[in-house]
Amino acid sequence: MAQILGALCSSHVPAIGRAMAKNLQQDPYWKPFFDGWPPVHRWLADKRPDVAVVFYNDHGLNFFLDKLPTFAIGAAPQYTSADEGWGIPQVAPFRGDEDLSWHLINQLVAEDFDLTTCQEMLVDHAMTNPMHLMYPDERWAVRIVPIAINTVQFPLPSARRCWALGDAVGRAVRSWQSDAKVMFLGTGGLSHQLDGERAGFMNKDFDLAFMESLIHDPQWATQFNTHQLVEKAGTQGVELIMWLAARAALGDGATLAHQNYHIPISNTASGVMLMDAR
Amino acid sequence: MAQILGALCSSHVPAIGRAMAKNLQQDPYWKPFFDGWPPVHRWLADKRPDVAVVFYNDHGLNFFLDKLPTFAIGAAPQYTSADEGWGIPQVAPFRGDEDLSWHLINQLVAEDFDLTTCQEMLVDHAMTNPMHLMYPDERWAVRIVPIAINTVQFPLPSARRCWALGDAVGRAVRSWQSDAKVMFLGTGGLSHQLDGERAGFMNKDFDLAFMESLIHDPQWATQFNTHQLVEKAGTQGVELIMWLAARAALGDGATLAHQNYHIPISNTASGVMLMDAR
Amino acid sequence: MSFDIPGTTLFDGAQARKGYALNKMCFSFNEAANRAAFLADEDAYCAAYGLNDRQRAAIQARNVLDLIAAGGNVYYLAKFAGIFGLDVQDIGAQQTGMSKDAFKAMLAAHAK
Amino acid sequence: MSFDIPGTTLFDGAQARKGYALNKMCFSFNEAANRAAFLADEDAYCAAYGLNDRQRAAIQARNVLDLIAAGGNVYYLAKFAGIFGLDVQDIGAQQTGMSKDAFKAMLAAHAK
Ligand SMILES: [Fe+3]
Ligand SMILES: [Fe+3]
């Protein structure tokens, strides 16, 4: 049976990619953010995961409003990034884990998750930036299974539904006949808002309470409906549902291995959180 | 509140379209099939539905394996048919009911249905043929909301899940603030198989039992998993889950208004069934 | 995943993985221009979609059972058959090794 | 559906219906060739996507609040902003009526 190592949650804003491209890691603006990553690198070197199941949200690269899935799962041999409208440099392609993709699809559909399956799929900065932060040399040591959750168009799936998705993914991984070591990745957040007169909104108290809850009361955030999450975390802060799904996949109990929180990077309160499975 | 009139279920095989194009309604081969429709025409003239929510399956026109949804719902002002590979003549475009589309999307996502929403959508023979049978002059008297259920790639949603979907759609329509008269349409089946050495398979006993069950024991078919349905009804006979969803949308109790069953049209056991809501 | 319904291959993940290039090509046949391009230069068209040798041979043979074994899905294959004006009874007859008339008689016999 | 979070327009069904043509155009800006085509002939490009007058005016004014009011979704609008090299702090400053420096100072102040 596959072994679950832990979960990593991280912000994914496009500016991270630009900062890495320009080698700004030691720049005073960026240093407090990048200083959050060496403990993650040590963890990866120590644990050596084989596969990462990645909960993230597409920002209008692979999906448009003509076919907008609530939950989409990749089942491709390879995933590539692409120009998202800003001419950003592409990163090396990611290898998929088709065995795990189809195992998850079979298990999740049987549990009444109405997935959209993708045998071909472009992945955007929400995939590339966290992966690049994990592996700065772009030598991806993990195969991936991307799971995209809609944050583009309301109604979004509720935090409660995203918890249930993550929980089912975790159970499916535990039943996977493989000797692979699996980690979960949740990318997005924390509090930020890009649009409207409220642009620039952040909520440090809420973010810290949310991060704390993942260890001691992990379903805490499922009490909030989507509108409440927007109110507390901003229109893009709702991306915290990716963190929630990744935490849910760990199952009962998780221990904090590392965390970092910093305001601001770009328009965002950034968070990094690494949890070991129990 | 919107009023629910009833549900119509029907086969949708491409050959029907060809027969209509060639005016073969009185041809000895086709007459037993087309003779099933005048009672439906009388019902439509009498009840005058304003909107049809249509459960159907796409056969590789609007969806491909790069983005294949389990449940997709249209939210477009208009839906057009298109060449499906055979150069068939197109029919007049269908008017959408966007108000109902979004009402359903909001209600269903809140009930944990993980929909793929489609603001642009081509509809294939599974939509055009039943609509053309209902309105032979191509003057569609109803606005439509298409709901496409995956029958292309396994795992399919279970019969039980499709019943739950239909049930939730029915409840959502009943809560819709509108004076519209709504009907449901379920298209597909009955028993048939196009592929493999088992091509040509049909199962009259099972079909008749299934049709009977929709009146007296409507959840009967939910006892079967997808593999059992393939065994009993053929690889394409699983399209009966559209009938099941349409019946579920009627809620408790339905009375039989009319039915017709005929073997064969094309490779298919054809069924037509009209049920009044109670 | 193997299945115990004789003469039946369910299009599951294993088939979908195997057949992606083939099905993508057949999906393209929704458009008349693509059907014409295939007929104009079958080799080039198959190469552009990256068909493997087995898929290429099955396309060349117009053999539905071989196409299914190579990962083809009947919904997309039907669009390939459409290029040649074949309907579902033609492909049913081919797969069952019957003449079309015999296949149609078999279908009609289910009415009893 | 109106919402009681000040300064916030949720992109719901009502917005999605209103903004489809605009968002479809902005989605096309994922590709460099389309960005160039827009810059080469803005009027023709907007006309090809069927923008209404309000959307056309908001595009012409490069005004984000107007674009949102016309049904634009920030994820697609960001691709439009990208054509002009504007980042999220530029559009944040524009929407809040601040200078970019003032907007950045406001962001930093959240750290306290
Ligand atoms: Fe984001
Ligand atoms: Fe069909």
TrEMBL record, chains A, B:
Q: Name one Pfam family in it.
A: LigB
Q: Which domain of life is it from?
A: Bacteria
* Protein's UniProt keywords contain Lipoprotein: no
The UniProt GO MF terms for this protein read:
ferrous iron binding; oxidoreductase activity, acting on single donors with incorporation of molecular oxygen, incorporation of two atoms of oxygen
InterPro entries, A to Z: Xdiol_dOase_suB
The positions making up the signal sequence are none
What are the alphabetically sorted keywords of the record?
A: Dioxygenase, Oxidoreductase
Q: Which residues form the Extradiol ring-cleavage dioxygenase class III enzyme subunit B domain?
A: 7-267
Q: What is this protein called?
A: Protocatechuate 3,4-dioxygenase
Q: Which organism is it from?
A: Rubrivivax albus
From TrEMBL, chains C, D:
Recorded hits in Gene3D superfamilies, A to Z, give: Dioxygenase LigAB, LigA subunit (1.10.700.10)
* Name under which the protein is recorded: Protocatechuate 4,5-dioxygenase subunit alpha
Keyword Electron transport applies: no
Keywords, A to Z, come to: Dioxygenase, Oxidoreductase
Query: Mind telling me which InterPro entries this protein's record contains?
Result: LigA_sf, Xdiol_dOase_LigA
Q: Which organism is it from?
A: Rubrivivax albus
Give start-end ranges for the coiled-coil region(s): none
What range(s) does the Extradiol ring-cleavage dioxygenase LigAB LigA subunit domain occupy?
22-107
Under Pfam families, the record lists: LigA
MF terms in GO: dioxygenase activity
Say if the entry is tagged with keyword DNA-binding: no
